[in-house]
């Protein structure tokens, strides 16, 4: 059984470098895929209130028989809860739906700067962390500007920022900021949603050179650079393949060729104008 290496977080906890994304599974699919992924050796599972599948994810965790303590479970909350009391309620709701009594990582899903209360949400997360309800705390879709606002207000940065990141969307500026503030970078849509990216000639060439699939080459691009990646797949075979990416090394030239795809793919959502 494959196991992903771990990345140390500022909290002192450790996150597996490769995990399972669960959007857009419904409850039934999430239960099946989560149970299969855990059986295959996945130990990081990522969901969100907004995906509407936390109950199914929880069912998959229980069905797998893997002890809770071996699983790193992440969920995220919506803009309606961006207050200190609201985050507590969001935690209670997610914990109940998932059937767990703590979360490994709880994230502000989007900054929603139009609402202007993500700092209050961050203060709520700090309380939950101090009470042990959440082991590590973080954000998603935050730009360096949003990160600077919460760090200035509270003196504490997130353990993790989960952002859309793949060779089409390399996120140099965000990653430099994260590096300077001990924030782990977690890549969502790491396969570029599985479409054109996997047919790019540089990706196909690297895959052929290493005897792996294009998806494995892209996931190695993430993990070799210290990123945490959470690809989603509904197929058992591809789930297994996506976890099996630690037995080869891309060359510096291959990594540079992937980086050169930056900006050439579909546009990502803008966290200043999009969010829920
Ligand atoms: P499927 O669920 O049929 O496997 P992302 O995680 O970047 O959003 O990408 C998810 C998409 O990539 C899904 O459409 C998924 O399809 C596809 N995908 C996941 N793993 C692989 C793989 N190893 N090879 C090809 N496509 C994949």
Strands, helices and their partners?
Blueprint lengths: L5 E3 L5 E3 L3 E2 L5 H14 L3 E3 L7 H11 L7 E6 L6 H15 L4 E6 L9 H13 L3 E7 L3 H11 L5 E5 L7 H9 L3 E5 L12 H10 L3 H11 L3 E2 L6 H8 L8 H8 L17
Parallel strand pairs: 3-4, 4-5, 5-6, 6-7, 7-8, 8-9, 9-10
Antiparallel strand pairs: 1-2
The structure holds adenosine-2'-5'-diphosphate.
The site of adenosine-2'-5'-diphosphate has 18 residues, from helix 9.
- Choose one word for the global shape: globular
Residue share in helices? 25-40%
What's the number of helices?
A: 10
Order of helices and strands: EEEHEHEHEHEHEHEHHEHH
* Overall SS class: alpha/beta
Content of β-strand? 15-25%
Q: List low-confidence stretches.
A: none
Ions, cofactors and other bound molecules? adenosine-2'-5'-diphosphate
Largest sheet: 8 strands, parallel
Average pLDDT, all residues = 97
**Given this structure, which CATH class of the domain at 6-190 and 227-234 is correct?**
Alpha Beta
| Total strands | 10
As laid out across the biggest beta sheet, the strand order is: 3-4-5-6-7-8-9-10
First and last CA, distance: 37 Å
Known CATH architecture of the domain at 6-190 and 227-234: Alpha-Beta Barrel
Cα gyration radius (Å):
18 Å
CATH topology of the domain at 6-190 and 227-234: TIM Barrel
**CATH level-four homologous superfamily name of the domain at 6-190 and 227-234:** NADP-dependent oxidoreductase domain
Oligomer description: single chain
